[in-house]
């Protein structure tokens, strides 16, 4: 654990031209070290999976990177720019999009309005057409005019993901976007991720479902107690019994 | 599409009746109609921030009063300026005050903004009461212009413009999407690239400036103002109840609530004189709306689903600084 920073830059799987670089990121909430010197990278067009037990600091890392919470210290470089401590809206405008662990929809707005609101501060021409395409891609056309708060849990997850698509981001952070959804909805989301990656979008995905991690992620990053423990291809991580003990030995 | 044609037809008929109204009723009822238009406009101005953005303004009368006092001060001696010249000045003063109050407090979630707006209105009452140039507690008398039709059409124009701007900006533009997004979930709105502090401030300034225009017309219309009559807390209270009753965050709710409550107010006044009965009705209206009509009268007609979440719920969450989980 103490040498966690070294392997990242030396391993062959580490990105040559990373879109996101995090170095020595710290955030303490009172006595809790939610981020205790996080180091990681996400390569261009890479789908990186972020795993770790509950409370290991994954969601906090998302908030620190996306600007929702300011870090105590450390470096966050996105597409070559230092964005540590930047306002969330500025980070978003640079091309970084995220979902929230608990769906954070615009409850009193319709599904279509939710999608349009995501594009309101961005490339607006053609937003209505893109919203229609996104509805079709996520199979949400039949609820297009429903209020977001009236959607089922799975549909809310889809809409949360749809807003991120509307951002036309170059890096997308997904926080348990398939947790607790029907296999059909999971399939829709996985197909959409694959489609976006073809267009050159990079992903950092928090996920507890190891089958999903295996099927979509190019590389796995393992966190525990606010630090990155190790990273590498899925098979390598699974073979590493220490990691599996960390992860599976402390189930929720 | 069919519904849209019906909307246009209804709006056209409404406007037709409103324009012809001075020919149809006597001056007494024309004054009531003028007042109803003013309250419909004021309620709409409060709703811009309270309903569309979810930020409760407890001191909106401050901006109504600023518009009234700027007009009065500029029209009386020694300036003696024409009425039309006073409106831009009132707008400028109001906008400046809204920026000064809103810029620091709208960045924060919780009750800070509500408290600041309430305190501002209280400060203005005291200020206008103790200062000599505002006429103190006695207030100011404006040069009388006794043409009921002029004031009816002035209020009609101001109200029509207010609703047109609200329709275009909050219901049919990107700006409106941003405002409603930050009302429903501020961290998510920020994550979508929306500068929520700026959008809130812009909405607040527009809301304040609109109220100041009605204040200006009101001062010239009634020809006499004092601190209580234009800054009084009961003015804000009425706007809030009108919007809640009509439908928070809806286009037509404030018009429905504004006209309904003002007419009730006048009827009570006609039959019982100046009683506290009206205040009791306001209180009862709040209780009934919160319990049975969280989306107001307009909510009865809107297509709604299960409706577990209401605009009112969002506004209350903001006021107490709750909700919007996953903020870490």
UniProtKB/TrEMBL annotation, chain B:
<dbReference type="GO" id="GO:0005886">
    <property type="term" value="C:plasma membrane"/>
</dbReference>
<keyword id="KW-0812">Transmembrane</keyword>
<protein>
    <submittedName>
        <fullName>Branched-chain amino acid ABC transporter permease</fullName>
    </submittedName>
</protein>
<feature type="transmembrane region" description="Helical">
    <location>
        <begin position="204"/>
        <end position="222"/>
    </location>
</feature>
<feature type="transmembrane region" description="Helical">
    <location>
        <begin position="29"/>
        <end position="49"/>
    </location>
</feature>
<keyword id="KW-0472">Membrane</keyword>
<dbReference type="GO" id="GO:0015658">
    <property type="term" value="F:branched-chain amino acid transmembrane transporter activity"/>
</dbReference>
<feature type="transmembrane region" description="Helical">
    <location>
        <begin position="5"/>
        <end position="23"/>
    </location>
</feature>
<keyword id="KW-1133">Transmembrane helix</keyword>
<dbReference type="InterPro" id="IPR001851">
    <property type="entry name" value="ABC_transp_permease"/>
</dbReference>
<feature type="transmembrane region" description="Helical">
    <location>
        <begin position="242"/>
        <end position="264"/>
    </location>
</feature>
<feature type="transmembrane region" description="Helical">
    <location>
        <begin position="82"/>
        <end position="103"/>
    </location>
</feature>
<dbReference type="Pfam" id="PF02653">
    <property type="entry name" value="BPD_transp_2"/>
</dbReference>
<feature type="transmembrane region" description="Helical">
    <location>
        <begin position="110"/>
        <end position="130"/>
    </location>
</feature>
<feature type="transmembrane region" description="Helical">
    <location>
        <begin position="150"/>
        <end position="170"/>
    </location>
</feature>
<dbReference type="InterPro" id="IPR043428">
    <property type="entry name" value="LivM-like"/>
</dbReference>
<feature type="transmembrane region" description="Helical">
    <location>
        <begin position="276"/>
        <end position="302"/>
    </location>
</feature>
<keyword id="KW-1003">Cell membrane</keyword>
